[in-house]
Amino acid sequence: MSAGNLLASGMMLESLSASGKSSERLSLPLLQSKMKIDPEGYTTELGLIYNQFISALDLFKQQAAISFSSGACADASISKELGDRTLFLAHVAPFYAKQLSQFPRQLVEFLKSSARSLPFGLRAHVTQALILLVNRQMVEISETLALFMELQTVGDRNLRKLAFTHVIQSIKRMNKKHKNETKNRALQNILFTMLQQEDEALAKRALNTLCELHRRKVWFDDRTANAICMACFHSSSRIMIAALSFVLDYEKIQEDDDSDCDDLSSDDEANPQNAHIVISKEAVYKANHSGTSASKKKKKAKLQRAIRSMKRQQRLSSEKNSSTYYSPLNHLKDAQGFAEKLLSRLQTCNERFEIKMMLMKVIARTIGLHHLILLNFYPFLQRYCQPHQREITNLLATAVQACHDLVPPDAVEPLFRQIVNQFIHDGSRPEAIAVGLNVIREICVRMPLLMTEDLLQDLVLYKKEHQKAVSAAARSLMVLFREVCPSLLVKKDRGRPVNPKARPKAYGENHVACAVPGTELLEGDYNSDSDDKTDDDRDDESQFHGSEDDDDGVPAASDEEEANGTEDEDGGSDDEDDLLIGSDDGESENSVDENDSDLSSDEGDDEGDENNGDSEKMDDANDGAEVSNSKSNKRKRSDVDEKLLASVDSSLRALKRLAEEKFKPQQDEGEDGILSNEDFRRIKQLKAKEAAKRALGQHGFKQSTSDPTKPLDPSKLEAHIRHKLNKEQRLALVKAGREDRVKYQSRTAIKQNKTGGMSNRQKEHKKKMPLAAKRHKIAKSQVEKRKKVDRLGKQFRGRKAWK
């Protein structure tokens, strides 16, 4: 068919008439809708339009070849007709699958061969037709993925956006109900191959596709994460920067401001089940009922600070235990090799400082996440640790993230000393001192073995600085070592540590849990309860034996004296009787009796000789009475001793029986080793009490709440110092504070302007009383004045000068 006949027939297609129908003129959209309603009735028209599409496609290829050799422009009408027929056939293709079975392959070959040379309108129409066929499952996405990735490299912004969106939505739709691993692996292999190619544009589009699918959690697996991380070693710097940016931007740090803490605390107060906080009743009582109003206000504020800190700690611990935190670096198969290769590239690259900073951040995050040992990284960071260095806070945050407890302290000590010497000295600015102290605190959270006693005491002295940021940073360092190692602090800086003998773990030391965490708290609670019960039982036993003695009619004091007397007569007793009854008291009483007899003999010697005869007569008369009294006393004491020994034996048996009953259940629980739900609830309460005690002992000092496994926010290291304001700034603040203030008025004017009625005192002044009541009131006031004068007395006021 010649080109003239083809063009004439193409112009006639606008007025096609349906066979067997009325001879009305039909346009392509109207014919398309009728063919969808009755596909079998329009088979002839479909064949005619398909043949015209093939003829137009051949004609366009011939004109493109002629225009390429001669430089002449192709006919725009042919490209328009070709684009219209292509979209028409793509819309009706699902209804004529057999007749149009070769149509998708023809479109794919046409785009592969001449996609870059097509006019933008025709290229967009053909791409839309192919997307429509893929969406209607006429073509598999695995057959067209490479084509759509190449179309994104064409210099057409709208086409690039169209192809990229189609690829993402197609793969997302394919994995919506269930993940087909076979198809996913085939598509991933195509993209991984493109990512490793030297073609920068194609590799960049493949990396963007992988990152978007990983961000949307469509391909949220190890293979995709490793492929993205391995793109950091691409020869092109643009692809390396894109991969580094994705890894760093994926783990953006959520700011934890005081406002967020207040919002969370209000949420916790609204939902008390979210937080488990136990404050001692004594602290609550003191805050509400003990002391002056000012001291009570301070105690209430301290309680609120303790509650907020405990809620923050519980929230951080729950976030740490939960699996919400994620980074693509977690899926690295060879994390040590990845960090070493990235460090070697960092040492040899000639890129600008921002790119080096990104490389250092990724290396530090890898070291912190996987607890790697990369000793060459710390001397490299040491070269940049200067106060005048650009982006110094980001660099210091990177140094902090690269520290963990498995790194030898000797490897980090030069960097640690560099930060101390360069930032913390008297000639440094307050901002640098505060940043240095914050960095030292964060490093010591991860590696407390770096700190020495002399250095810590020197750094803590900055708590007396006038700059609030510096003093707050020094106090936070002091609070950290109150918990980690109080022995490094001076005694006055230790405060009330929870564990005075606490010390950091030695390098390589690891504590293996051999029991359920918190059982030691439970055992201590049981021991305290048992001690209290034994004290109560002892009180009950003493009361019981005292009542028995009272029933016998013998007082307790006389029992001890009589028992001592029997011991002296018997010449000794058993050890248990000595412990229970006590022989020391008897010895003291005997010594007192001997002293009394000595005193009486001395007095007798001091008297005159005249009384000697009388005294001898009295002694002779009293000898007989003393002998009879001693025999009766001996019989009484022997009876009492028998009763007392019997009661002691019974009390010992009762104590032994009580101890056996008390320790039997504890032994059974220890042998069983199974904790009940009540025990776990008790452990939770004891942990909350301990946390409350620790929080109340901090006295409102700033604590380090950073998680070593998460990236550190550099803004937390910065010092927010309020500089001195000039006169204009102070006046502006004063005027801003006066905006909502009411105009000043005296108290009298305020009373006069009040809208309510008169006060009771004003009403009393205006109240009309009877004459007798007035006289009584006057007389009463005079009597009160006279009593006041009498009570105060006359006071000499001095002579008046004019008299």
UniProtKB/TrEMBL annotation:
It is found in: Nucleus, Nucleolus. Residues 745-760 have a biased composition (Polar residues). Signal peptide: none annotated. It comes from the Eukaryota. SUPFAM superfamilies: ARM repeat. Residues 518-647, 660-679, 690-714, 743-803 are annotated as: Disordered. This is Protein SDA1. It comes from Linum trigynum. The lineage of its organism: Eukaryota, Viridiplantae, Streptophyta, Embryophyta, Tracheophyta.
